[in-house]
Amino acid sequence: MQATPRRLLLRLLENRDHLKRSFYHKQALTNAAVQKKRVELFNKEAKRQATFITDVEKITVKYCDQPEECTLVMNKNISTPYNCAQHINQNILERSVLAEIDGQVWDMHRPIEDDCTLRFLHFRQQDPYYVNKAFWRSASVMLGAVLESAFKDNLYVELCSFPSPNVRSGSFVYDVNLKIPSWEPTKDELRSLSAEMVKLGMAGHRFERLEVDASLALKIFADNQYKKRQVPFIAAQSSSGNSVVVYKMGNFVDISCGPMISNTSHLGKVSIVGVHPIQTEEGQLFRIQGVALPKGIMLNHFSYGLLEERAAQLNSGRSQAFLAWTSLSQVSKQGHHKTLKKKKVKLFFVTVE
Question: What would the mean pLDDT of 75-83 be, rounded to a whole number?
C-alpha cells in the first residue's frame, strides 16, 4: 500500500523522536551522573541494612595498647574502632589508620560485630606492613575518583581495575579507559591531576565500607563494562558466595576487598607521574601511576624526586579480578595464574584488592 503524506509525516516524527532519545541517552551518560547514581544506591542500601538492627546490644571491647589498657562498652554492629578511639585519646584518633580486631586487620569505620580485643595501627609503628598496603590501595581508589572527575563531561571515563598494592613496585596505579586513542600528558596536566589528589586529601573524606549482594553491585556498576564483568567472579570468591565489598569515599564508589585507611587526610605529598598505554584484547587502556607519602612523613626534594622517577616507569603489577575478557565458565580452578595475550603487560585473574 502506498504511503500517504500523513503516514510519511508520522514516520518522520517517530524517527526524529527515536534519534532524540538516542542522542539524549548518549549525552546523559556522564561521570557526574553515574557517580550520583552510585552514591544514592550505596546510601539507600546502607540505610536498609541499618534497619535490621532493631535492638541495641552491648559488647565489650578491650583496648590493649598505649597509653593504657581499658575496657569499653560499645554497641554491637553499630560502634566502630573510630568510635572507640574517640573515647580513648585524641592523638590515637588522629593518627590511627587501621584497627586490629582480635588480630584481624579492620577498617576504622567498619562496625564491630562482637566482644573483642582492639589495637590501632599507624604509619610510625615498628612493622607498618598492613598500614602501607592499605595506604597504597587507598591511593589507587583516590586516583580512580580523580580520573572520573578530572575530564570534561563529553569524555566518559570507565575505570577498570588496579593491581594489588605493592609498595616495592614504586607506584600506585589505576587502569582506565579514556575513550581516546592516545594521550601523552604534559607536565602541566600531570600537575593538575596531582593537585586534584591533594584537594581530595584535604577534604578528609572517610572510606565507608559496605558489603552488598552481587545483584545490587551489578546495578551500582551497570554503567561500567569492566566492573560488571568483575562482579560475578568477585562474588563467587566471597565467604557467602554472592556478596561484594564496596567503598564510598566522598561522591565516589568502587569495589575493593579493603581494608582502606581511615580517611583521605592521611595522604601527604603526592604526585601523578606516569601514563602508559596497555594493549588488551578489548582495546586500549591507560595505566595511570603515582607516588605518595603519608601525611607527616617528610622527605627531602632530591630523595622524593628519585621516587618520582621510579614511579614514572611502567608498573607491571597484575590487574585484579580481570574478567573483562572471559566468562566464569572459562576460568579454571587455577584461575589465579591464567594469563591473557598481551602486548605490554600481563593481565591476571586474581582476587580484587
Answer: 97
